[in-house]
Amino acid sequence: MGQLFFDESVILLDLAADSKEEVLNKMGSNLVDLDLVKESFIPAIIQREAEFATGLPTAGVSVAIPHTDVEHVINKTISVAILKKPVDFVIMGDDIETTPVQLVFMLAMDEAHSQLSLLQKLMAMFQNEDLLKRLVSLADKTEIKNVLEENLGFLAFEGGER
Amino acid sequence: MKQVLVACGAGIATSTVVNNAIEEMAKENNIKLDIKQIKIAEVSAYEDSADLLVTTAMTKKEYRFPVINARAFLTGIGIEDTKKQILDELKK
C-alpha cells in the first residue's frame, strides 16, 4: 500500500453541478485523469451513493463523504470539492431526506478497515463549525491544501511521490 | 459476551470510526465485547449470534436485535444520546 496522494490537483474549487451524480462524475473523472482510480470507480461511487447515502448535516456546512469499494482504487487519495452552490445529498442512514452539501470529501481508499486516525480527524473536522466555514470561504487551492494537511495530520506527501 | 455488529455500506470508512468509538466506550465501562466490523450486506451472516447492530447505513430490514443509527459519531450532533442508547443495550 502506497502513500496517500494529496495535492492541489485533487482539490476542486467552485465546482458547478446540478445534482449529486454530476458532482461525483466530475470529481471521479478528475481522479481517473490523474490515474488515481480506475474508470470503474465513477459508476461504482454513483451506485454506492444511491444505495448508501453519505450526506452529513453538521453544525456549520453540510458535507458528504462519498466512497466505494477498494478494488476501483489505484492509489489512495482524498479529493475535496467546494461546490459553487449547494447540491442535495441524501443523508447518511436515511432514504429520502436530503441535506444541502457545500463541501465534498471523496474518499478513495485502497484498503478496508484502515486509515482510522485520518478518518477520525476528518470526522473531528466535521464537528468544527468555524473550520468548515473557513474552508468553504477559501479561494486558493494551496491554502485549502495547507488547512487540510494541518487538520488531518498528513505526513509527507508531495505530488509525484506515488 | 455480547456481539456487536458495526456496519456501513462499504465496510471501509464510517464503520472504522464507529468501531473505534465503541471499543473505547466498552473499555471505559469495563464491558467485554465481540465487535465485528462488516458491510451492511453481511449482517445476515450474524443474524443468529449478534446482540446489537450499530450502523451508518440505512436498513429497512427487521432484525431480532436492536439497530442503532451511528451517524452521531460522524457529525457529533446527538452523540451523547447515541452513546447512552448503545450503553443501555450493552448493559441489558
TrEMBL record, chain A:
Gene3D superfamilies membership: Mannitol-specific EII, Chain A (3.40.930.10)
Cross-referenced InterPro entries: PTrfase/Anion_transptr (IPR016152), PTS_EIIA_type-2_dom (IPR002178), PTS_SugarTrans_NitroReg (IPR051541)
Listed SUPFAM superfamilies: Phoshotransferase/anion transport protein
UniProt keyword annotations, A-Z: Sugar transport, Transport
One Pfam family matching this protein: PTS_EIIA_2
Occurrences of domain PTS EIIA type-2 (ranges): 4-151
Keyword Transport: yes
Protein name, UniProt field: PTS sugar transporter subunit IIA
Organism: Oceanobacillus chungangensis
TrEMBL record, chain B:
UniProt keyword annotations, A-Z: Transferase
Source organism of the structure: Oceanobacillus chungangensis
Keyword flag Chloroplast: no
PTS EIIB type-2 domain segment(s): 2-92
Keyword Transferase: yes
Stretch forming the signal peptide: none
GO biological process: phosphoenolpyruvate-dependent sugar phosphotransferase system
Protein name: PTS galactitol transporter subunit IIB
Family annotation (Gene3D superfamilies): 3.40.50.2300
Classification via InterPro entries: PTS_EIIB-like_sf, PTS_EIIB_2, PTS_EIIB_2/3
TM spans (from-to): none
GO molecular function: protein-N(PI)-phosphohistidine-sugar phosphotransferase activity
Matches recorded under Pfam families: PTS_IIB
